[in-house]
Amino acid sequence: MEPIDVRSMMNAAATATAAASTTGLPRQERRKRLSPAALAVVNQKVRDAYSRVVVVGAVRIADFVLLSAVGIAIYLAYVMPIDGFVWSYVWAVLGVAAAAVVSFQAAEIYDVQVFRGPLRQMTRVASSWAFVFLLFIGASFFAKLGGTVSRVWLSAFFFVGLAALFVERMALRALVRRWAREGRLDRRTIIVGADDKSVSKISTEMKELAGRAKEGKLQPHEYQGGTASLSNMGMFGIKQFEAVINPPQGMIMAIGAGEKRPYVVDDALAIATVMSATGSFDHRAIDGADGAQLMQAFKQIVENPLGLVA
């Protein structure tokens, strides 16, 4: 972790614009040959990421198909051999399945974060499924269909359907947790060629990508790949934290909040606005010494913004 003096950064920022127009220092690059381990990391195939909207939509369809299949299968196995085929049962099953999906949506079950929590997910599924059946029973009573609907079929539909939903949700939880570990549910925008772009250009691209991300219009090449990430939780008042590397990237930097702390300024103790930056590095691709030099250079540049235009 490197503490960064934001006050000195802000003091120097006033002259950064003028220096940018008058300074024409050449860029200096230091390229190193990658080790075999680093090459193996770089050459790892980047798996396609899944859109959360598409995942949630697929779960809705799966719920409807699953509940419809359970209800119709029970009807075909128990009711039809006795009373013959009646379309009203099929329409009732489809209506219950559709009402269940709407009830799940109202209970906020269709959320990727909810998919990861088994207790909260199962509780909401059970309560919503029971609510739908209460509505169906009430509708049957007022429509005077109570004598024509098989109670055995209705009870079996409820309990078998609930069990099927539980099994589906457990499988979905395992699948979503695996996708999350693999980074396939993320939509982190990628700035390509950031080392050759100015700060203003990067800022402009970030705003454009953020706007398209909110609208759900990002293209795959705009959120897949990358070599390093920034995670800024300082905007939420988090003082310091350690971020987890997004495979197959080589590093991630966690940016904390700027706050007033005791700090040595000109060999005297003073109060300065300081923030914390924590770097996490994959040592298969980045040597620890190189990572330390990067953090040191980052600290120096942020405290002296003129370095950004050099």
N-C termini distance: 25 Å
Summed up, the domain count is 3
Rg, Cα atoms, Å: 29 Å
Structural class: alpha+beta
> Number of helical segments?
10
Global outline? elongated
Q: Uncertain spans, ≥5 residues at pLDDT below 50?
A: 6-10, 12-31
What share of residues are in beta strands?
5-15%
Order of helices and strands: EHHHHHHHHHEEEEH
Helix content: 40-55%
Largest sheet: 5 strands, mixed
Nearest-integer average pLDDT: 78
Describe this structure in words.
Helices cover 54% and strands 11% of the residues. It folds into three domains: 1-21 and 34-46 and 226-310, Chloramphenicol acetyltransferase-like domain (Chloramphenicol Acetyltransferase, 2-Layer Sandwich); 52-181, no CATH class; 191-224. It contains ten helices and five strands; from the N terminus they run βαααααααααββββα. With 310 residues, the protein is an alpha+beta fold. α7 runs antiparallel to α8. Strands 1, 2, 3, 4 and 5 form a five-stranded mixed β-sheet that branches. A hairpin with a 2-residue loop joins β4 and β5. The chain has helices spanning 6-13, 16-22, 36-42, 52-83, 87-106, 112-116, 118-142, 151-181, 199-215, 288-303; strands at 2-5, 228-232, 251-255, 259-265, 268-281. The longest helix is centred in the first third of the chain and has 32 residues, at 52-83.
Task: List the topology elements.
Blueprint: E1 2-5, H1 6-13, H2 16-22, H3 36-42, H4 52-83, H5 87-106, H6 112-116, H7 118-142, H8 151-181, H9 199-215, E2 228-232, E3 251-255, E4 259-265, E5 268-281, H10 288-303
Parallel strand pairs: 2-3
Antiparallel strand pairs: 1-5, 3-5, 4-5
Helix pairs in contact: 4-5, 4-8, 5-7, 7-8
